[in-house]
Task: structure prediction
Amino acid sequence: MTIDAALTEIFNLIGNRLTRSKSDLDLHGRSESHFPPSPPDAVAYPETTAEVAGIVSICARHGCPVVPWGVGTSLEGQAQAFQGGVTVDFTRMDKVLAVNAEDMDVVVQPGITREALNEELRATGLFFSVDPGANATIGGMAMTRASGTTAVRYGTMRDNVMGMEVVMADGQVIRTGTRARKSSAGYDLTALMVGSEGTLGLATELTLRLHGQPEAVSSAVCAFAAFDEAVDAVIETIQMGIPMARIEFVDAATARAFNIYAGANLPEVPHLMVEFHGSDRGAAEDAERFGEIANAHGATGFDWAVKPEDRTRLWRMRHNAAYACAALRPGARSLVTDICVPISRLAEAVNATRADIDASPLEGPILGHVGDGNFHAVILFDEASDAERTEALRLSGRMVDRALAMGGTATGEHGIGVGKLDYMAAEHGAAWGTMATLKRALDPLNILNPGKMVRLN
Amino acid sequence: MTIDAALTEIFNLIGNRLTRSKSDLDLHGRSESHFPPSPPDAVAYPETTAEVAGIVSICARHGCPVVPWGVGTSLEGQAQAFQGGVTVDFTRMDKVLAVNAEDMDVVVQPGITREALNEELRATGLFFSVDPGANATIGGMAMTRASGTTAVRYGTMRDNVMGMEVVMADGQVIRTGTRARKSSAGYDLTALMVGSEGTLGLATELTLRLHGQPEAVSSAVCAFAAFDEAVDAVIETIQMGIPMARIEFVDAATARAFNIYAGANLPEVPHLMVEFHGSDRGAAEDAERFGEIANAHGATGFDWAVKPEDRTRLWRMRHNAAYACAALRPGARSLVTDICVPISRLAEAVNATRADIDASPLEGPILGHVGDGNFHAVILFDEASDAERTEALRLSGRMVDRALAMGGTATGEHGIGVGKLDYMAAEHGAAWGTMATLKRALDPLNILNPGKMVRLN
Result:
């Protein structure tokens, strides 16, 4: 069998760092997504770029699928081996290779997690800004074009990956980008790779943009009677040019989940959670101006987190929101939806989603990154019930249809994998065919994470 | 002849908006670059996307080169028809199609210039930020991945183009991106097109990110005894997180050019020109903090432009710098070099460039976007002298070699065209081959702006 032949050669290359143990296969068959387990034929733990290139070369010769793996936090099945083959686990490639403090960049291997990276950066006064909540790997975040709570100020992975070393489908190693802050030299291969979910190449090194730790941070939570008012406050804040470091929305159901899961004491109405970064004076002024705008839109119960530990508690609560929501129905599986719309349509999109879910037998708290127009419903369903799974997918599908009709996108930050494949034609039209052309050109044998992102037949 | 056959069909499509008049051909054979004129066989003035698609379809059938044209301000020969064919002039596709003020975006045709766009936006309180100096078209700026003085704060065209309508090499029309602020849905075709210089497709519509006009603007110019001191001040300012809207460097020779051309009265030493945007309090605080940092690095002669007309004068002087420098040697041609390096190496790169030029018989004032690590030397040479042209190119080549050795790029914002083709292999290695693979996949007949960006044989 072709996969067996590939595994034999890979074993010759990396020895026991290729494993077929049941526990390893099971672990790499799962993810935090709602898809059924689908283990690979083997898991490889390379330690160097040369080993990754060797593995991919072998797989190319044998037509064996290659699936990249960070820590398995992707939500659309990106890291699952639906066609078998070799999962390449980057756990052992988790080093910081260079910190360039003056240039505010860092060079890392793909397997480092964002929390580990920020731990290593702590003494430099710099930080890596992208924060999707989960402690994902940098490689996985880049390949999913992840974003999260801070994107409104510091951008997504699109904005914060300056360059990459990539193993291509034939095993060739290329470098994209430079350490310069900008360039007009050729096609933007870095941007092409970011968000490509391992279907065009495997990242083996990444150069990331860093930001200075702010002198002052100011965080708060406040309540609104209706979501529309909250959105209007956010739009006005953005238009005034007040720089928000984070601006998060949670609905009444999520507030209830926080009360139960995190012992919060929030009124069960929509809330905004905000953060400002700047100088002592600047952050205070921004917070004050936001407060005035929010109050004019009916905000109540402003709770400013003055002490660092209060801020940590506030954002830990937000980061654990998916778990808090899931706990509303013990034993249920979550389908975490993810759409992004122009902000002028956000209130309408959220309200229509809320009405859909209220009319459904399923529960589904809503929360999101209101500054970007990106939000999620955490739809809770019984994994054993086909009817409930179908209903959860129907609710997600209605959200996507609505987002596309509003000029938005099927996914703000979770990506396509297999979970959003069915919406690609509707979102992109003929451009999805262009994506398939690129895939065929760069991976003619379709060995890199096959079945994700594009359809080739 | 194949080109003649194509022209006949295009004439049938758009009538007299296809022209072969000598004045039209001459105009479109030139650019602001230093390359000898190279006129196309004809110039087409389409008015709709369908006409552009029709023209490209005809050219695809006949193997006729298609060269896109905005206003001809590109500096590396991007818009010149070195292989003949049809130049597609977008002058008649210059409309604003939609202003979405709440979403802070705008949809435009490619032929609108940035100044015309900002004129149309004036009443909205919003502006389009990218400002390369020249009053280029938005289509040309996107395709060159232009940036300029405000990139340090608001980003380059990479950051400010949200989506495009593109006519592909077979005449198919695709749409890239959405009006959502972010997306993880598929390969980033928008980023692939931005900076592709018309070699992968022709932009017929662009959706752009807008920014709020700042409440307050604070500008200044100040002098330094040595460039190193100025760079150290800039690095410290960036690391402190003080948001600069512009931070421009001019050397002593440029200061002299300003004195002669613009009637300035600057000491003939290195200068920084800065601008801060924010609230009244915020911009003032930022300016004050910058002033303290600059003074600690030996800045003198701070001249704050308080009145709007003083600011206008200051930045008009900067925008006309290339003309001011050229006027130092009447009748000479300019070769405007363009490298970008990590900012930690900027002082070294500028000083080495200065020493190179001082040792050369040619004049070459240096200026640039110090916040990005991007700078230019305006090398003045006699077009009739092969020896001087060779010397100018040698100086430019040394700058590029040095930039690449420092982890930088051959071009920060002017692009590749034909002028920087010879450096692509050195900058990108095997990744340049990947670019050629993409070009072959998307333009298999090599009709779109052939001879630029990649080499196919």
